[in-house]
Amino acid sequence: MLLTLAFRHLFVRKLRSLILLLGFALGVGVMVVLLSVGQAMLEQSRDVSLVGGGEVTVLPQGIDIEAMRTGGLGAMFFGIDRARFLTRQVLGGPRHAGLVRSVAPAIEGKLLYLCKANTACHPTAVRAGGEVPSRATALGAGLALRQGSWSDSPADSAYVAPTREQLYDELDRFHVPPRADSTWGEWQYYNVVIAPDEWWYVTYLVGGEVGLPAAGSEARWGARMLLTHRRPDGRYERYAATAPSADVRFDTTRADLTIGPSTVRQRDGLYTLHVRAMGRAGQVRLDLRIRPLLNRYFPPVELREHQFLSGYVVPGLAATASGTICLDRRCTSVADAAAYHDHNWGVWRDVTWEWGASQGATLSLLYGGVYGPEQHGAGSTVSSPLFLAVVDSLGVRQVLRFSRIAYEGGQRAAGASGNVAPRHFKLVAGRGADTLTVTTDVEDALATGMAAAAFQRFFLQMRGRAVLRGRLAGQPVSDTGQGFFETYRSR
After folding, report:
1. Which DSSP state fits 413?
2. CATH number at 351-491
3. Fold of 166-349
4. Which one of 170, 241, 393, 469 is separated from 89 by 20 to 30 angstroms, measured CA to CA?
């Protein structure tokens, strides 16, 4: 009976029935479209050619995911800082070897401008991408070739899995300043502990208006060798040698450096140092071989703010040194001595820093932070630049932040008269649930006065014992080791 009434109503009220049918059809159509779109999005989310393959995708911080997927302008200007370090050690290193099979770096939609060769330049804007063929194939996102070949170039191999020589040349290469500046300085620094009460600081320094010749024949830059010897009796001896720019050779693709008769050569991860310098105690000759321990390095970090630039890398957070050290004609053999090596570059006008590195039984510690001209210490309103890195035999384990170092007590420092070094200092660093406390007893200190009239500080180089306690990844950690530490203090 109800069905009969319904059909009769359709014939009696034709217009109303048509509108009703259209309404139902529209609703059903919208539902079909939504279900189809949802299914398509689900299939696309599983498509390795769209997301780059693999099970985890690492993207630049702050990127608009939709802009990246659709190719919008907002996707062109993002990058991942220290992507090589992430590829080689953080994600693809030995720490996660049982979890991560392959890591495939890729560049998507970068904006380039091209000019045809041998013609007037009329730039053409293009978008280009790049990836490492073997890694993309391993993740199931390799190209379906119709013709030709697609394999790793030497540059691809050096990016994802460099040899030791390629790695240390990349970390330790030299830089050309972006503009002429008399306060530019770049140096390789080494310290070598040949006995519990005897060590050396060695600095290969290039500085001045590097690359800019003066009006005459002399260039307005040069280099110096700076050495400090802490003797077993507690006294310090300094040595130096100066070379004009004509006797300096540095390489923007290698770690090699020449300053007059003093040289650094790096081959297969082994640094060979030859040093010649003079001091009040006579001539010193160092012929050392320094080998950084595997995975004990910290990647390059560069800070830029207005005219201020500061770069830092640690190729050898823990290393060994062997060779000979000669004072005049008295030579001492060195075998497997504890050593450290870092590299700094930048503009150093009114710049100070906090720095320290220590080596325990299983862990290496590195902390530091640079204060530019506008952020000297406690009076600064700029957020703290201080960091603490924990490194073990598998590489960097964690990087934490902290806001201050608490210096306590006082003791006489060698060097510049009337200066006082702390007896102890402490820092507390954290990242998420990870918290570490480092307490240090200062056993020895050397103070150096600063020549600049406006720079009313002295530079402290300290030796001491650091104790680490805390938690990392939910596990308690504890270690103790000797280290070197630096700071600036007011006069």
Report:
1. P
2. 2.40.370
3. AttH-like fold (2.40.370)
4. 469
